Amino acid sequence: MTRKIIEITVETERLLIFHRQFRMWRAWCVSCACDVEMVSPVEAASLAGVSPSIIHQRAQAGKLHSGCTAEGEVFICLKSLCEAEHAGL
User: Fold this and answer.
1) How far does CA 44 lie from the centroid of its chain?
2) Of 13, 33, 46, 82, which one is least surrounded by beta carbons within 10 A?
3) Which of 65, 26, 20 is nearest to 43 (CA)?
4) Chain segment 53-86, per-residue pLDDT in tens
């Protein structure tokens, strides 16, 4: 009697669709070294499905790129958020 081995590979892809209007602006991300879309930590948390404190922790740990405006407003690089989500962070 011979044994057959069946191997199944499943590839998944994640697509983010923004249903509500987020306040985004373009700015230079020093870490990405390019012009990217930026969002507030609250909006980043909403997109990632986590709390704003988690976003702040990830930004402080260097897992997300962040910066401040001249007025002191914190912003999160949307490109780094999408890459972190893709990596499963």
Assistant:
1) 7
2) 13
3) 20
4) 999 999 999 999 998 888 888 999 999 999 988 7
